């Protein structure tokens, strides 16, 4: 029992402000000098990188999706005798019956489209990441003793100032309840303004994210990425919650940078964003659309293939 409580405290103390204040001088810190912004790169460069990568994902995946559907249509067309001939539609005066015939014809195509092999998609998108950004990253076993999972550069070289990963999860405003979600949860990120992002892909956190994402879905096309909750991600960047804290042996090579996704962000690319609001609307904006908080991990130096990513969980901004 005591061991379990000690483990829970070890995970929670990084969000307990008095403990942070007392132990700050004993921690390895990232320090931002007075007069400088806590940004490694500009917001414009950050968004341009994300849009460029998401556009490549969308273009390749859409082309492959349409190719698969067209192939299935051709294959179905070869077996009209076993299914339905187009002449059957003209014989039917009842529009509802015609609709049912069409639905029957294309039902298998829709099902096959939804059951695309996610492992193939994941590997294909890793190759797209390498082609567009010059590197790819994956969740792997950490180099740290008892470090669990970490994130490693598995191909290519990460240049300095590159967007390497995104921190996925449910976004909580400072006034929103997160106590029960935070219990035994080491994946909660606290932004500088008190906003929290719960990047846990298990348990109640996973249920809340899925529920919130489906709640905000306004059309057949999703506006949030759900695949980061699984082992195989459509957006390979969405592994930021598994980046471990720096140590004396492994100093930080990436830094967190907060960024706001505005209404100008292309709607067709939002399905690759791994974040969703906990509440359906903002108390400030009411029913109007809100900006979406995104936390990116930016490289502080060139990172070679085989290196693990390490960040600083503590950043001091001098005012």
TrEMBL record:
Residues 133-314 form the SET domain. InterPro entries: SET_dom, SET_dom_sf, SETD9. CDD domains: SET_SETD9. Gene3D superfamilies: SET domain. Transmembrane segments: none annotated. Coiled coil: none annotated. This is SET domain-containing protein 9. It comes from Lingula anatina (Brachiopod). The lineage of its organism: Eukaryota, Metazoa, Spiralia, Lophotrochozoa, Brachiopoda.
């Amino acid at each position: 029992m005591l061991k379990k409580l000690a483990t829970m405290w070890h995970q929670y103390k990084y969000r307990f402000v008095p403990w942070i204040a007392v132990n700050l001088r004993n921690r390895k810190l990232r320090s931002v000098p007075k007069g400088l912004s806590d940004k490694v790169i500009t917001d414009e460069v950050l968004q341009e990188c994300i849009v460029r990568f998401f556009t490549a994902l969308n273009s390749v995946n859409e082309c492959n999706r349409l190719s698969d559907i067209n192939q299935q249509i051709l294959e179905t067309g070869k077996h009209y005798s076993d299914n339905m001939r187009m002449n059957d539609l003209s014989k039917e005066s009842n529009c509802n019956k015609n609709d049912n015939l069409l639905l029957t014809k294309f039902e298998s195509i829709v099902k096959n489209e939804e059951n695309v092999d996610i492992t193939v998609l994941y590997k294909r998108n890793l190759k797209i990441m390498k082609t567009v950004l010059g590197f790819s990253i994956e969740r792997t076993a950490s180099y740290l003793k008892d470090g669990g999972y970490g994130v490693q550069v598995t191909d290519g070289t990460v240049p300095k100032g590159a967007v390497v990963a995104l921190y996925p999860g449910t976004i909580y405003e400072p006034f929103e309840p997160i106590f029960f979600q935070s219990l035994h949860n080491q994946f909660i990120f606290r932004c500088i303004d008190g906003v929290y992002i719960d990047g846990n892909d298990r348990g109640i956190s996973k249920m809340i994210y899925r529920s919130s994402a489906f709640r905000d879905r306004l059309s057949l096309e999703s506006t949030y990425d759900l695949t980061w909750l699984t082992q195989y991600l459509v957006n390979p960047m969405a592994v930021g919650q598994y980046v471990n804290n720096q140590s004396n042996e492994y100093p930080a090579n990436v830094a967190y940078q907060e960024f706001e996704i505005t209404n100008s962000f292309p709607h067709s690319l939002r399905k690759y964003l791994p974040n969703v609001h906990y509440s359906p609307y903002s108390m400030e904006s009411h029913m109007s659309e809100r900006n979406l908080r995104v936390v990116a991990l930016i490289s502080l130096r060139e990172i070679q293939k085989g290196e693990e990513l390490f960040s600083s969980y503590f950043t001091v901004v001098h005012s």
